[in-house]
From TrEMBL, chain A:
This is Ethanolamine ammonia-lyase large subunit. It catalyses: ethanolamine = acetaldehyde + NH4(+). Catalyzes the deamination of various vicinal amino-alcohols to oxo compounds. Allows this organism to utilize ethanolamine as the sole source of nitrogen and carbon in the presence of vitamin B12. Substrate binds at R150, I151, Q152, N183, E278, D353. HAMAP family: EutB. The lineage of its organism: Bacteria, Pseudomonadati, Pseudomonadota, Alphaproteobacteria, Hyphomicrobiales. Gene3D superfamilies: Aldolase class I, ethanolamine ammonia-lyase heavy chain domain like, lyase. Adenosylcob(III)alamin binds at P184, Q236, S286, M392. GO terms for molecular function: cobalamin binding; ethanolamine ammonia-lyase activity. Pfam families: EutB. It comes from Methyloligella halotolerans.
TrEMBL record, chain B:
GO terms for molecular function: cobalamin binding; ethanolamine ammonia-lyase activity. This is Ethanolamine ammonia-lyase small subunit. Pathway: Amine and polyamine degradation; ethanolamine degradation. It is an enzyme of class 4 (lyase). It comes from the Bacteria.
Length: 454, 270
């Protein structure tokens, strides 16, 4: 590394091309300049990266957290590796699941982001696949050979019957084992409570092992918990700098408070991972809180925040932000694989919202590609939106059908507790696969759900 | 047709009789589509493809400035054309910051065109993210608005601004010395509507204004708010903005009390 070149400049120039880094005016100006930066980055040691904080920890609580988390003893054995050697080790037979997992607290987001920048998509998949991260609440999410799904039954007015109809549709496809998670149209404790109680009643009537989440602000969840609402998971959008988190109206102390409140409710059955976080490349830049750091590195820093609170679920909403950050299918696919890889290496139970907006140069074929690649990479969970069309947030994500497709072609199973339930209600066969569509089974489930009571 | 995979198992029936069908009255979500294996029925697959194609076409459609000029001729107001700094569609989509700035030539042109102390109001039309929206509803909404404004209002020439974002109304309003700017702009197309027009109103427009300083009427289209209804609301908001000497969040709170189904907090069009 050149003496005069700051690490953040090197990371930005070495980052595979994407519109957000051009927007921030920090990207390499030619392809050759980018590869030359990647060579310099490959020769940089992990110790060099540790020694140069991208943001002063005295001025940024995320940076302070990154250094507080760092395990110097575990790091000692790899500190003199170059980023290039680190890549080779990760790809080698020596990097077993246990060996990679043992480095969880030795690795910082910046080290993981750095190595991702000199990896091809294939490398990102091959290594992430070796590093499962398992989390538990009423279901066990992230076991190798499994893929879970969030039912995302959003409705522009939070209509209870409309939401419930979307939930039951999803259950019939074997979705919901990650979470039933609603983005509310209105962020208020009363609205949140109504939706939580709706899911709670459905869950109890159907005797279905799922967890619920209403994706309101963390302060709304804290308020709800104080009033005795049935909160399973606490949600929050997070990012990789204190300033960006502040633009979301949060700080680390609030996340800690929310987690402790949710833990005290003790609602999990097989485990107590009670947090659900969402992230996405470009979030910090859009809040003018990126500190001149490239968007992929900023995203990895958000995972340091996530892992501090032992979440059940973390997902990167990879194509939601728009073409000024990720322009087309190629950039969205690359970013999705990077985020999944970085999250897993840092020990985060990583899912991906495989998605796009109508002004991005992307379509369903691009999403099929990313979904299939992530299935191979071992992604913990994806979204399930009826017919891919989120009528509240106005973007396209993966559908219940897509979830059934990826499980089928890659022989991936639902969470074990949920698989048992699907068998009991006659929707899965004895091997855990979706039975042919049957309107009798649908009608029976619908009857039991009793939506008129919703 | 003989090759169509007709289900032979009696349990598998056509999607039209899906048990969730009666619940579709509660939601526009694409529920109860049915499936073949994991795949969508062909009609559902093509329905989605068509909605997405319409949205994509709207994003990339041409801004028909000539047709707008013709349609606006009978307003008696001059119609002028300006450009943002985003020189083409690809740049526009990647660089929203450039869509918020006037090109050098356009800034000079508008500044030189300013007469006396400027104007009360300037109406700007920009394709934004849906040229279909402005090509379809832009002139109609602008004309209805002109009709609803006070007769003595000093209205600036109508500005057709290509490759613009909402905030392009700030430098345009400033260059013309307009006390208030209204920009009619194509909203980001969704699967359900690809031709939705938005109207954003800013009192004392100048660079540095943000979303909290604006008021918005969105979803102007067939099946949403009609151009005539929208014009009435914009005219009402305009009058209140002049009374209060501001626009944005404070005007919104005031309007909610007085205007049924009134204005919305300004949201970015992207």
């Amino acid at each position: 590394m050149g003496q005069s070149e700051p690490l953040k400049t090197l990371l930005a120039k070495a980052s595979p091309a994407r519109s957000g880094d051009f927007l921030a005016e920090i990207a390499a100006e030619s392809q050759e300049e980018r590869v030359k930066a990647q060579r310099r980055l490959a020769d940089t040691t992990l110790q060099d990266i540790l020694d140069e904080p991208l943001i002063d920890p005295d001025e940024d609580e995320v940076s302070a957290l990154i250094y507080a988390q760092h395990d110097g003893d575990a790091f000692a054995a790899i500190s003199n590796w170059s980023v290039g050697e680190f890549r080779e080790w990760l790809l080698s037979e020596n990097a077993t699941t246990d060996a990679i997992s043992d480095l969880k607290w030795a690795l910082t987001p910046e080290m993981v982001a750095a190595v991702s920048k000199i990896m091809r998509n294939q490398d990102l998949i091959a290594v992430a696949r070796k590093r499962p991260v398992v989390s538990k609440f009423r279901t066990t999410v992230g076991l190798p050979g499994h893929l879970s799904v969030r039912i995302q039954p959003n409705h522009p007015t939070d209509d209870p019957k409309g939401v419930a109809a979307s939930i039951v549709d999803g259950l019939q496809f074997g979705c919901g084992d990650a979470v039933i998670g609603i983005n509310p149209a209105t962020d208020s404790p009363a609205a949140m409570r109504r939706l939580l109680e709706l899911i709670e009643e459905l869950r109890l009537r159907l005797e279905c092992p799922v967890q619920s989440c209403v994706l309101a602000h963390v302060t709304t969840a804290i308020d709800c918990m104080k009033r005795g609402a049935p909160v399973d998971l606490v949600f929050q959008s997070i990012a990789g700098s204190q300033k960006a988190n502040s633009s979301f109206g949060i700080n680390l102390a609030m996340l800690k408070e929310a987690r402790e409140a949710a833990l005290s409710l003790d609602r999990g059955t097989v485990g107590n991972n009670v947090m659900y976080f969402e992230t996405g490349q470009g979030a910090a830049l859009s809040a003018d809180a990126h500190h001149g750091i490239d968007q992929q590195t900023m995203e990895a820093r958000a995972y340091a925040v996530a892992r501090e609170y032992e979440p059940l679920l973390v997902n990167t909403v990879v194509g939601f932000i728009g073409p000024e950050y990720l322009y087309d299918g190629k950039e969205i696919i690359r970013a999705g694989l990077e985020d999944h890889f970085c999250g897993k290496l840092l020990g985060v139970p990583m899912g991906v919202d495989v998605c796009y907006t109508n002004h991005a140069e992307a379509d369903q074929d691009d999403m099929d590609n990313l979904l299939t690649l992530l299935g191979v990479a071992g992604v913990n969970f994806i979204m399930g939106v009826p017919g891919s069309d989120d009528i509240m947030l106005n973007y396209q994500s993966t559908s219940y059908h897509d979830a059934a497709y990826i499980r089928e072609v890659l022989n991936l199973k639902a969470a074990p507790e949920f698989e048992d339930w699907m068998r009991r209600v006659g929707l899965f066969d004895e091997t855990g696969h979706l039975l042919p569509q049957s309107h009798e089974d649908s009608a029976r489930l619908l009857g039991k759900a009793d939506l008129e009571a919703a | 047709m003989a090759d169509k995979p007709v289900p032979t198992d009696k349990k598998r029936v056509a999607p039209s009789g899906h048990p969730l069908a009666p619940l579709k009255r509660y939601t526009d979500a694409r529920i109860g589509l049915g499936r073949f294996g994991a795949g969508l029925p062909t009609s559902a697959h093509l329905d989605f493809a068509e909605a997405h194609a319409r949205a994509r076409d709207a994003v990339h459609a041409e801004f028909d400035e000539a047709a707008l000029e013709t349609a606006l001729a009978d307003t008696g107001l001059p119609v002028v054309r300006v450009k943002s700094q985003a020189e083409d569609r690809a740049t526009y989509l990647r660089r929203p910051d450039l869509g918020r700035k006037l090109s050098g030539d356009s800034a000079k042109f508008l500044t030189e065109m300013k007469e006396g102390d400027g104007y009360d109001i300037v109406i700007i039309i920009s394709e934004g993210l849906s040229a279909h929206a402005v090509n379809t509803y832009g002139a109609e909404t602008a004309k209805a608005l002109i009709g609803d404004l006070p007769k003595d209002a000093n209205i600036a020439p109508i500005v057709l601004a290509s490759q613009g974002r909402v905030a392009l109304s700030d430098p345009i309003g400033q260059a013309l010395g307009a006390k208030l700017a209204v920009i009619l702009i194509g909203e980001r197309p969704g699967l359900s509507a690809a031709d939705s027009l938005g109207a954003y109103l800013t009192y004392d427009p100048k660079p540095g204004r943000n979303d909290a300083d604006r008021n918005c009427i969105s979803n102007i289209r067939k099946g949403g708010i009609s151009p005539e209804e929208a014009a009435k609301k914009i005219a009402w908001l305009t009058a209140r903005a002049f009374e209060l000497g501001l626009s944005g969040t404070k005007l919104k709170d005031d309007a909610e009390d007085q205007l049924e189904g009134g204005s919305q907090e300004a949201l970015p069009e992207e």
